[in-house]
Design brief:
The chain is built from 15 helices and 17 strands. By secondary structure, it is α+β, with helices and mostly antiparallel strands. The termini are far apart. About 20% of the residues are buried.
């Protein structure tokens, strides 16, 4: 009996132990599931927090009855707080909003609570640092929990981008108005052509007052230009290439205007959409100016012909009487010198001197006239040969004045007109021999170097071309710095004819020759310290 009772007790104990182990195992399984779910929730929270940080979007909730406020971590950062170790309340929530927006935001939240609806409002907030930010607030009222939930997103960068876009659009409209230039877009497969406001103005319409398609636009093109316009346009459209067309349009008022249209076929958008993007500019004033310029060119050509005729007269009709004046003056002096007193002989000498100066002036004017018409027969020339021939022509005066000439030229070549370059160096070296102190022997140094245009400090020079820089330096009387530019003007003299002979055309001829060769000439000097003339010639001429 006792054994039976003990056995039954052991069975009951085993049963309860079994049940306890089952419960424990069940609890462990539930705990594992809860732990897994908790881990999943934590991961979701981390993802949510990361998403909020990336989008600058914070979340919040406000319990209407208690006034309790909760912020997400990102909302602290959106509002400009450096830490999140304090609990926000309704007063802080209100103070964050810029004063001028508080009434607007409060009205939207109140409406959401009363109507149990959602809300969306854009406003400004003020950071503790004083910085202002644009934010977008969105949310809704949860009736069962009597609370508002929402998000606050920092949209400052977006607002600034939109503002810049509006400013750029405004600048573009103003630029189009100033330049009388309109823009347009014609998307493949679309009938409607999108015009800017200035396009309407150029064609004589109020903005967006007419429906613009190609059929309509053809009616605006001048009838004499329509065939040319259509031919160019259809060829470009078929080949999908850029086109540029000058043509005339007729405004609704009947006024005829000249326009220039340029367009390019290009991809737009993300779905392989293509369109012609174009610009049309009113060039009527430019065209009128071009016509006037062409008329001026005709007048100028006529004037040049008159000048050439004058040069012919000067070289033939004026030279002949001048030669007779000189010849009869020589006869008077040779045949009747013994019968004339000193005063009469002085008159004859003055007459001969004046006629000789007249001959020199006519010769220089003829030379300058020929240079103005220009000879563009350029050939390759060695500077050493040009200078050597020039010195050979001046050997008598060089020997007479016992001048010292030092040449430091390499075997450099330039493309030029030989006769003109010889004339240039003859004038420069001749001036160095002429304008010297009576007691000094002339000292002249001629040197050359090669430089690229970007090293010359001359805006008009071609940066990528090679230039020969020739310097003619002397020890003469020099001149004032303020006369540096004037000396290249025709008929400009720095000294009286009694001190130094000449016509005042020599350096003007040098300037003209340099211009004919697309080159430059300049001078530096100080009184009593000689002068340096710099001639810059391109090594190769543009064909």
């Amino acid at each position: 009996m006792v054994a039976t009772i003990i056995f039954i007790g052991l069975l009951v104990l085993a049963y309860f132990l079994f049940r306890s182990m089952s419960v424990v195992n069940g609890l462990k399984a539930e705990a594992a599931v809860l732990q897994k779910q908790n881990k999943y929730l934590n991961e979701r929270v981390e993802v949510l927090n990361l998403a909020e940080r990336i989008t600058h979007l914070g979340s919040w909730e406000v319990f209407v009855e208690s006034g309790q406020v909760k912020w997400s971590e990102e909302l602290y950062r959106v509002y400009g707080f450096k830490n999140d170790d304090f609990l926000p309340d309704t007063s802080i929530n209100e103070q964050v909003i810029a004063p001028e927006y508080r009434e607007k935001v409060a009205k939207e939240l109140k409406s959401a609570v009363e109507n149990k609806t959602s809300f969306a409002v854009e406003y400004q907030i003020i950071h503790p640092s004083g910085a202002r930010k644009y934010v977008l607030g969105q949310g809704f009222y949860i009736e069962g929990e009597a609370k508002l939930v929402g998000t606050i997103q920092d949209v400052t960068e977006l607002k600034e981008a939109v503002l810049k876009l509006k400013i750029n659009e405004s600048l573009l409209r103003e630029a189009e108005m100033v330049s009388h230039s309109g823009s347009w877009e014609w998307v493949d497969g679309k009938e409607f052509i999108l015009w800017s406001d200035e396009m309407y103005n150029i064609h004589g319409f109020l903005p967006h007052s007419v429906f613009v398609n190609f059929a309509f636009y053809k009616t605006l093109v001048h009838e004499d230009d329509i065939q040319f316009f259509m031919g160019n346009f259809y060829k470009a459209k078929q080949d999908k290439t850029l086109f540029k067309i000058n043509y005339r349009i007729v405004l609704p008022s009947g006024e005829i205007r000249h326009v220039l249209t340029t367009a390019e076929y290009k991809r737009i958008g993300l779905n392989n959409n293509y369109a012609y993007i174009g610009n049309t500019q009113d060039v009527t004033q430019l065209r009128e100016a071009q016509v006037q310029l062409e008329e001026k060119v005709v007048e100028l050509n006529r004037s040049n012909q008159d000048l050439e005729q004058f040069a012919y007269v000067a070289s033939h009709d004026l030279q002949e009487p001048l030669r007779k004046i000189q010849a009869f003056g020589d006869r008077l002096k040779d045949k009747y010198a013994g019968q004339m007193n000193e005063e009469a002989q002085d008159y004859i000498s003055r007459m001969r001197g004046a006629s000789e100066r007249m001959r020199a002036l006519i010769d220089d004017l003829l030379t300058f006239s020929k240079l103005t018409r220009g000879n563009k027969s350029f050939t390759k020339l060695r500077l050493t040969d040009i200078v050597s021939k020039t010195l050979s022509d001046l050997d008598f005066i060089i020997e007479t004045k016992k001048a010292r000439v030092k040449i430091n030229l390499e075997d450099d070549e330039v493309e030029g007109v030989e006769s003109q370059l010889m004339q240039l160096f003859q004038n420069l070296i001749g001036n160095s021999l002429k304008f010297t102190n009576q007691n000094d022997s002339p000292g002249i140094e001629i040197s050359c170097s090669m430089k690229y245009g970007h090293d010359l400090n001359i805006p008009e020079a071609n940066r990528n071309h090679i230039y020969c820089v020739v310097e003619v330096k002397d020890n003469g009387i020099g001149f004032e710095a303020e006369d540096t530019l004037k000396i290249f003007d025709i008929f400009h003299r720095l000294h009286s004819r009694a001190d130094y002979e000449g016509t005042g055309i020599g350096l003007a001829i040098c300037k003209r020759i340099a211009d004919n060769h697309s080159g430059f000439i300049s001078a530096e000097s100080r009184p009593g310290n000689g002068a340096v003339f710099v001639v810059i010639l391109p090594k190769k001429q543009n064909k």
